[in-house]
Amino acid sequence: MHKNIDQHEAKEQLDFIRSIMDDGQRVLADNGFGFILWGFLILGAGLLTLLFDYMDIHDAEGWIYLVCIGIGWVYMIAHRDKERKQTFGNPLTIRIINAIWTAVLLAMTMMGFLGIISETIRSDYICSVLFTTLGIAYYVQGVITGKSWVRNLGFGWWLGAGLLYFINGLWADILIAAMMIGLQIIPGFIFRKQWKIQLAED
Amino acid sequence: MHDFDYQQIDDLIHSRIRLAVMATLASMGQASFSIIKESTGATDGNLSVHMRKLENADYLVVEKSFVDRKPVSIYSLTDKGKLALKAYIQYLENMLPLSNSKD
Question: What pLDDT is stored for residue B26 in this prediction?
Fold first, then answer.
């Protein structure tokens, strides 16, 4: 038995389809592991640097960061397919978010190493430059996925980066650690929790 | 290859929940039951019934897998389902005055 529908109902149905598809473009279920991993790697590198400083070993900083950031990149490349399979959402949205994060992380890696080696960026203030860049990825992801709390993380990174342009030493180290925990690791766990809820079998 | 009649409405899709399921999967490519539930606003039981109808019609397919050692059901549209949704949208567009005036 086929139903007859009028123009009004046809328009309503088309608007309904459009709204559902628009909402679908904002869905992004990310397992959050990348956020957590990078957060712990950078936090770990910072703590190791402090430990080495305490032990009067001052030329290991570059190597510590090289190893930690290297681990992050190796993981990302090795697990790229697995991560893709575990991420759900509109394919274009996923591609845009992945492209932004890859571009930002690559830019940060280049600035972090080449900037310091070439002495065009002072090592004392490298975090302010890097975190200014990192804020872009959070801000864009928040806007695209319609999550204001993720967008606000971008503002958090920019605020912290702004302060780090003017302070260094112990207070800068404390602020960097707090940002890494509060704006990277904890959000990673929130993403992971939301992802588990989105995949949960009912 | 499936032939769909663009002059006839597909009763299977012409239900708010089933249409929402089809549109969600068309937009996302694939989605878990929970994501579809959130998108449609349907209850578990109600959604399961509608999903089964779509599955029985070969409009969608479910792939069971394990993520993080937990069972997960991932739904996606079949080629038949994509064509059916396309035909349904075409039918609706044909009903609107603008598309009629083009013919």
Answer: 93
Mutate to test the interface with B, among A16, A82, A202 (most CBs of B within 10 A): A202
In this structure, of A45-49, A55-59, A101-105, the range with the lowest mean pLDDT score is: A55-59
Over 70: is that where the pLDDT of A23 sits? yes
According to the model, what pLDDT value does residue B85 have?
94
Which chain B residues are within 8 Å of A191, Cβ to Cβ? none
Per-residue model confidence as pLDDT tens digits over A156-182: 999 999 999 999 888 999 999 999 999
For chain B, the residue count is 103
Please give the model's pTM, rounded to 2 decimal places: 0.83
Residue B77 three-state SS: strand
Taking the CA of residue A118 and the nearest CA in chain B, the distance in Å comes to 43
Going from the C-alpha of A89 to that of each of A195, B15, B43, the distances in angstroms are 11, 24, 21
* Model confidence at A1: pLDDT above 60: no
Reported ipTM: the value is: 0.81
* Nearest chain B residue to A18, by CA: B23
For chain A, which residues make up each domain, given as ranges?
31-194
Going from the C-alpha of A61 to that of each of A55, A68, A133, A172, the distances in angstroms are 12, 11, 21, 16
Whether the CB-CB separation of A132 and A163 falls below 8 Å is answered with no
Token code pair at residue A163 = 């302060």
Instruction: Name the architecture of domain B10-96.
Output: Orthogonal Bundle (1.10)
- Is A88 in contact with B72 (Cβ distance < 8 A)? no
Q: For chain B, what are the domain ranges?
A: 10-96
B89 interfaces chain A, CB cutoff of 8 Å: yes
A interface with B, Cβ–Cβ below 8 Å: 1-7, 10-11, 13-14, 16-17, 20-21, 23-25, 27, 29, 31, 86, 88-91, 196-202
